[in-house]
Amino acid sequence: TEMAPTVTRSQPNRAYLGCSGTGASCPGCASHKSPSTAKSETYISLSQVLDENGKDVTPRPVYQPDPAAVQSKHSKIFASDTSGGTMSDFYSTTYQTTTNASFAGAFTRSLFGSGSVSIGSQSIMESMSEEIEDPSSKRDNSISLSDVQVKREEVKELIQEEMLDDMVDLYLVESDTLCLLDMPAISVSVDSMEAESVKERNSRYTELCKNRTGNDKYMGRSMQTFNGASKTKEVQSEAITMADAATIANNWDMYDSFCSAGQGEVDLSTDTDKAMSSSSSRMEMEPFVVPSESKPDPELILQSEEFQQHLFVMERIILENIYQPKLAAYRQLPTLEGMVLLKCWNHVTEQLSKQKRLRREESSLDEEGPPTPALERLWSFSCELTTGRNVSSMAWNKRNPDLLAVGYGQFAFKDQKPGLVCCWSLKNPSWPERIFTCQSGVTALDFSASSASMLAVGMHDGTIATYNVQSREKTPVIDSSDCVHKHTSPVWQVRWINHERALSGEDKGEALISVSADGRISKWFLRKGLDCIDLMKLKRTRNDRFKRQVGEKERKSEALISRQAPGLCFDFHPTDSNIYLAGTEEGHIHKCSCSYNEQFLETYQAHKGPLYRITWSPFCSDVFLSCSSDWTIQLWRQDLFTPVLGFMSTQRAVYDVMWSPKWATVFGAVNEGRMEIWDLGASILDPTIVNPASPGVKLTSLLFATETDCVLVGDSDGQVSVYQLKNFTAGEGTQDVSILQPPMRLVKSMSADRRRLGLFWFYIENKNV
Amino acid sequence: QAEVEETLKRIQTHKGVIGTIVVNAEGIPIRTTLDNSTTVQYAGLLHQLTMKARSTVRDIDPQNDLTFLRIRSKKHEIMVAPDKEYMLIVIQNPSE
């Protein structure tokens, strides 16, 4: 029979013969409301099991506490039972019995011995029963409630729709402890209470075993058991993919890991909060595991700082490759012909000295004189921004001799355009490092000596501005356009002068001095903005000595436009910073002092046209040079009022003149058409070296390089060409200019430590190959 | 931004420069003036060489690092500026 357990719902108003458990064991059950009639029922409660027909076929507990009832059953059972048997058969009971016995548990085991056969028969009866009477009679014993013999109807309520919404009470109760597995120990401790009995049993058993062999009472019997059929079960899983990974632990790899991990540990010791630090160190300990970074966007890479820096370096290196021979020549590193890839510096110098010896030997054998000095053009600073602009002034940086500032601005009034200041580095002749645009043409430039990144710029409209070349800003640091006393005419020269021997403390230090065409020489300082005081006002001097040139009117008859004479240039004495010379448009040179701002100390008159440049000799403190548009260059001595020497080579205005910083007798001059290097020791009539300008281009400014043999020439096309003086040695011949004081020595020092080892690799084209 | 572009353009127009390549860390070219196959070849080979060079430098002194690599051959000079995220390569023929 099939036993289909169904859940029953208790109906409180019926006599419900549902629960076979005790009141204690099913507290929620309605059928146990009234206590049992003094029967301690110790059933093991089971849930209801009903078969298809609604009959209760719950396996009942075997133990019946009421012996009287049991007895009555006995007779009945024996009558109808077919499976009752003797004790001996009991052991070879059916499967069902044993299961029922196990249901009943430990209890009933002890009853076996007492010979109650009702166990097996009852259960069999139950399973086979179809009668209702019998169960009811049984129930009389087990149920304490009512003696109403009612048909036990288990209302199997089908779950209907409306019942879904009803509140259902569920009672959760703790069931009795079911013993699923009880493995009693097979050994007991010697100290325990059972030890004696166990020992006795053990000894009895050994006796039994001994007696068994050969004893007729015992007979061996074999049994066969079925072996369980084995069954193979297969399981499938995904293939485990294996990948090989290898790594090499380098020195630096370990160093990196140690550094990043070690940082966490260092923090640990210095942190005050131990808990926090331990957690943080743990976190920092984690990645040693290469962190998988998100791949940076390509555009971001291009914008990054490091990329710009790398580009900068790369450009310099490319240019170094291109310009290497020229730069080497500039820096007076020996360039040897016909040799490829010189690595060792010593090797080079060895070669050089060998060659020099050879050459000297050769030249001593030769009948010819020393090779003629010449200029070799190395390169030129220019770029597309500067083409077409006129180079008006150039200045070296005082601290970094590789940095050159060039100012571009027109001289003439009529074609003014916005000016430009470019800071060029020797390492990049093709593009300036800094570009500053100014609102009007630049006419004067100077770098400061005390703060080497300050560049003072004088412009055609009279403005003076200072720029900081270190920063990338395009605007000046300070501007004089707001100043009340600013210059109203083009500023033709600016200079930073260090007043060391000043009277008052305020005047000490570096000051910016400027001269402008409005006739004032002003000293600028910073006091709530840029402000200036006038060191000197250049007054027009009435001059009876010289006849007026053709074209100029008599001064007496004409009304003066201004009483000031436009100043064009000035130069402070190299040793005494109080004395300076100023040149005017009239052609006069005034010697002035900072202490007197009303009077000139001296006036030197020789030039017939505006003076473009005055410069003191760096070697001889009494001597100065002046050049003007009257085609002449004059050499003066401080105490003589007429020039000592005058130089004229062409009929062109001389724009710029400069003493060589190396040789006492050498100076360079630039006029419109050509550049000349004069060596007074060699000749006082003709320039030693002449370099004509390219056609259509006027040369406008000249600058000697401080530590090398090079000359920079600026022209009206925006190019600054760098020339190297070759085979040039200042004449060691007789100095017939005895007026010039000694020592006019050669200040040529070609010591090895002056050469700058900026380039390690030489790559000289092997022209012969 | 614009300065970077300008500088790149200027580099490409310098005398003797054959090609300029910027590749990212995976070897994908970001900017190049050469054709793709050459670019990929250069990038791949130079990447390995740079790694080896860097490894060498750092093995000797782990606090040191490689900043620039120049390889001069008979025909060209290859200049590599390596970085963690990218690599800048310029090939120049200096004797042109």
Automatic annotation (TrEMBL), chain A:
Protein keywords: Cell projection, Cilium, Cytoplasm, Cytoskeleton, Flagellum, Repeat, WD repeat
Keyword Repeat: yes
Region of interest called Disordered, as start-end residue ranges on this chain: 269-296
SUPFAM superfamilies in UniProt: WD40 repeat-like (SSF50978)
Gene Ontology MF term list: dynein heavy chain binding; dynein light chain binding
Any single GO CC term annotated in Swiss-Prot or TrEMBL for this entry: axonemal dynein complex
Entries under InterPro entries matching the protein: Dynein_IC, WD40/YVTN_repeat-like_dom_sf, WD40_repeat_dom_sf, WD40_rpt
Protein name: Dynein axonemal intermediate chain 4
Organism: Esox lucius
TrEMBL record, chain B:
Molecular functions per Gene Ontology: dynein intermediate chain binding
GO annotation (BP), single: microtubule-based movement
Principal place of residence: cytoplasm
GO CC field: cytoplasm; cytoplasmic dynein complex; microtubule
SMART domains named among the record's database cross-references: Robl_LC7
Compartment(s) where it occurs, according to its Swiss-Prot or TrEMBL record: Cytoplasm, Cytoskeleton
UniProt keyword annotations, A-Z: Cytoplasm, Cytoskeleton, Dynein, Microtubule, Motor protein, Transport
Residues of the Roadblock/LAMTOR2 domain: 4-92
Family: Belongs to the GAMAD family.
Function: Acts as one of several non-catalytic accessory components of the cytoplasmic dynein 1 complex that are thought to be involved in linking dynein to cargos and to adapter proteins that regulate dynein function. Cytoplasmic dynein 1 acts as a motor for the intracellular retrograde motility of vesicles and organelles along microtubules.
UniProt-recorded name of the protein: Dynein light chain roadblock
Provenance organism: Esox lucius (Northern pike)
Gene field: DYNLRB2
